[in-house]
Design brief:
5-stranded parallel beta sheet, 7 helices, 22% strand
Length: 200
């Protein structure tokens, strides 16, 4: 299953007859935003209906688009998949279906890191997506996805090909934990556990 395309389809179901399908979404890049400590890249910001939300990516898009343009789109590049996630994040934030739209302040990074380390103490963890070492240095990290007790997924991992299949294969045998504001919308639509205790 392609988790991004499936999430777009679920978003469309939420928006049917809402009148919002044709509303404009602006995608920009804000170089001044400090991203979540579990992600690397540029902060792409989606703005819709007076709300905004983030997605951190190495392939940000700057454009004016519509939510309806996602329907049937191939979403076959990292850039378009990241843009789709940013749009999902802001749309769910607008409809109050997702609590987290932005990363926490840097002052909360230490507390977040310590709480994550405590929650996963003694567990073998596999990171899905490129993560800065400082964010996960206290965890017992393995590259063996098939044996890890916990799969940590950030935005980079979420848009990677095969992540939906990985989640489907491991959902009964591993704890699946999506990290940070980038994953908030898809985690909500897919009923996945989401970790972002200090996000706003």
């Amino acid at each position: 299953m392609d988790i991004i395309i499936d999430s777009v389809n679920r978003l469309q179901e939420h928006l049917t007859h809402s009148g919002c399908e044709e509303a404009g979404v602006r995608l920009t890049v804000n170089p001044d935003i400090r991203p979540c400590q579990y992600e690397r890249g540029a902060c792409m910001t989606a703005t819709f209906g007076g709300r905004s939300a983030e997605f951190v990516t190495d392939d940000p898009i700057r454009a004016m688009t519509r939510i309806s343009f996602l329907a049937g789109a191939p979403l076959d590049t990292p850039a378009t998949r990241a843009a789709a996630c940013a749009i999902i994040n802001v749309a769910l934030g607008f409809f109050c279906l997702s609590r987290v739209s932005h990363a926490c302040p840097v002052s909360s990074h230490g507390a977040c890191r310590n709480e994550l380390a405590a929650a996963l103490a003694g567990k073998t963890v596999c990171c899905v997506g490129a993560m800065p070492p400082a964010g996960v240095s206290a965890l017992h990290i393995t590259d063996a996805r098939e044996r890890a007790e916990v799969l940590l997924i950030n935005g980079d991992g979420l848009i990677a090909p095969g992540t939906g299949d990985l989640i489907a294969a491991r959902k009964d045998t591993a704890r699946i934990l999506c990290l940070g504001p980038s994953t908030a919308g898809v985690a909500r639509l897919q009923h996945l556990e989401h970790w972002c205790p200090y996000g706003t």
